[in-house]
UniProtKB/TrEMBL annotation:
Transmembrane stretches, start-end: 91-111, 288-311, 332-355
Subcellular location, record wording: Membrane
CDD domains per UniProt: S2P-M50_PDZ_RseP-like
Protein species of origin: Candidatus Ryanbacteria bacterium RIFCSPHIGHO2_01_45_13
InterPro entries: PDZ, PDZ_sf, Pept_M50_Zn, Peptidase_M50
Name recorded for this polypeptide: PDZ domain-containing protein
One example GO MF annotation: metalloendopeptidase activity
Length: 361
């Protein structure tokens, strides 16, 4: 559990810091005074001032923040955020989203270079260059022999043995054939979990519940395919664009369901769900973890650009209103609306976290 919390905080903090760094660097380049760049959230532990900016380390390790002069539409000097043109303010706001998209592109490119995960079907030819082919457990059904004996998501089925017979596994068909031939008998399942090899004694059920199989697992055969660095860059860009499109479509469907009164399925996750997914993915290897972090970065980019108060998209929306009106709103109006939006977002986060606890714990 502690490892799950630690890994989640590392991933979440890196993504948020990347987002805030986008705001920071563009604000600096635009001549806006950056008062503080903080790692974590206050209370402050210590800080170092370099030039006009305080670089701080804070107690709560939940990402980071950038504090600009005049960010809350408070009157300031000519270098305050509020004193900048609408275009320059929009550029600074959008920079965080762009930073997350660039991060996703870099991570997806790295994944394609190191080895992109693929699913292999028993009845199809192997793709050229595929390596690290394994059969993985992707689901363990509750109260099944596999669950009772500790098999977990991500375990690699390395071999089976029964009496004097031992079979090394190279395909899902081998798994199915061996289990079918030994129903009601004790067998040894040799699994690889990370760098550890473990032997698990299991008796396959003769009459399992429908859809569960004799030992109670779902599995996939997976492998990795690497590309040269120049091709990996192209594939990284393509994967980033495809991911952006998929997330936008999902959010469109989600909001239509939300406002249409339709039931919402388990397609969203909060902190607990994301932490669980991150830990499960880390067991699969670096390529899988980098791929997940890239997807989370794309998610963060898309969510932040939505026209919701307290998010970057909400701030852009007020700048658009300012351009249409020809004059900014009174400073207290967006401040109040952003505060209300923040409270609503916290409420939604608590609801999603409750769903996570029900589903994952």
């Amino acid at each position: 559990m502690l490892f799950a919390v630690f890994l989640f905080l590392v991933v979440f903090s890196l993504l948020v810091l990347t987002h805030e760094f986008g705001h920071f660097i563009v604000a600096k380049k635009s001549g806006v005074q950056v008062e503080e760049f903080g790692f974590g959230f206050p209370p402050r532990l210590f800080g170092v001032k370099k030039g006009e900016t305080l670089y701080s380390l804070n107690l709560l390790p939940l990402g980071g923040f950038v504090r600009l002069e005049g960010e809350e539409d408070i009157a300031g000097g000519p270098r305050s955020f509020a004193a900048q043109s609408a275009g320059k303010r929009s550029f600074i706001i959008v920079a965080g989203v762009v930073a997350n998209v660039i991060t996703a592109f870099m991570l997806f490119s790295l994944v394609h270079w190191l080895g992109s995960p693929i699913i292999i079907q028993d009845d199809t030819p192997l793709p050229a260059g595929v390596r690290d082919i394994v059969v993985r457990v992707v689901e363990v059904f509750p109260h099944s022999p596999a669950a009772e004996h500790g098999l977990m998501f991500g375990d690699v089925i390395y071999a089976f043995s029964a009496k004097d017979q031992r079979v090394f596994i190279h395909s899902m068909k081998q798994v199915q054939d061996f289990i079918d031939a030994h129903k009601g008998e004790e067998i040894t399942v040799v699994i690889k979990r990370g760098k550890e090899i473990e032997n698990v004694l299991i008796v396959p059920r003769e009459n399992p519940p429908q859809g569960e199989g004799a030992i109670g697992i779902a599995m996939l055969q997976t492998g990795l395919v690497s590309a040269p660095w120049y091709e990996a860059l192209f594939l990284g860009l393509k994967t980033t664009l495809v991911s952006l499109g998929a997330i936008v479509r999902f959010l469109g469907t989600f909001f239509l369901s939300l406002f249409g009164g339709s039931p919402i399925d388990g397609g969203i996750a909060g902190p607990v769900g994301i932490a669980t997914i991150v830990v499960d993915t880390e067991r699969l290897g670096l390529s899988y973890l980098f791929q997940l972090v890239a997807l989370l970065s794309v998610n963060l980019a898309v969510l932040n650009v939505l026209p919701i108060p307290a998010l970057d998209g909400g701030r852009l929306f007020f700048i658009l209103i300012e351009k249409i009106r020809g004059a900014p709103l009174a400073p207290h109006i967006p401040r109040i609306i952003h505060s209300i939006g923040f409270i609503v977002l916290i409420g939604l986060l608590l609801i999603v976290t409750y769903w996570d606890v029900v589903r994952f714990l």
